[in-house]
Amino acid sequence: MTFTFYLYFLLFLQMVHYGESKTLLMAQALWRHGDRPPIEILSYDQYKNYDWGVPLGQLNQEGMKRHYYLGLSLAERYINQFRLVNSTFHVEDIHVRSTDVDRTLASAYSNLQGFYSKSKINYPNNEPNYPPFNPIAIHTVEETTDWLLNPYWKCAKSEKLSNARINNPSFLKYAKTYSDLFNYLSSHTNEKIDSYHEVKKMFGTIRVENQYGLKQPDWLTPQIYQRMEKMINDTVNYSYGCAGFGVKQDVEQIKLRAGHLLYRIIENMKTKTAAPNDIKPYTIFSAHDTTLMAFANTLNFKTEVMGQGLIDYAGR
Q: Which CATH number belongs to the domain containing residue 267 in this structure?
């Protein structure tokens, strides 16, 4: 009997070989939440009073739908194809961990609705008016202490390394080439925009508005948008500890961002190998783009798998 481990994007599969046959023992899924409105809208923005349907930063209907269909897809694979878990919910089959943020928690619930859409047990099962829904526990911890899924958990060492990286002379020299962009954006928004972080925050809002088909002001030309995007694409991986701008990779920073998650996933695999009954066959981590990017950097494949810049909603 031999064991084989597979990595499919951010799905970790553990299989055991019995001669020529293979049996899937465990799957661990890491995903980003579904679609949401912007988290923050700057004062200049003409859409600051726009009706997004839900409050800023919350999972919207498109996000719910996208995760529901992702759940259906995962069910097809792990319930129907691999027979890893039962189509009817059993508590011993699944463990779900989320960050303590509404949109990640709601995404997990939406995904599980799809995953267990064929479940035959409803609670209370003697109540005819109760909707077809299985309450499934989702575990979380307070965000600032969530070292497992929040790359920006409150860690003095990580903050120190991050600040040193952004203030490295080589990076500051690069950032200076965007001083005209900073000045341009500041003058048109009446906001102080003089750093990568400010550009990234503003770009995140504009990117969502573009996805909604909302027209941008005339001064925000495609060329300006592309320059903002280029700065982010050039910088985001570096800010997580990857090599760039003549600065070497910071292994310690990469570990502090997502090394705990990599360790947990590996330990789960070891436990499943040594004591199969001590861990559930399907583990879910519902988190953020920052989580996925930081985690991919621990395996040194972020650019190859996810591209150079930011990632989309419901990524897995």
A: 3.40.50.1240
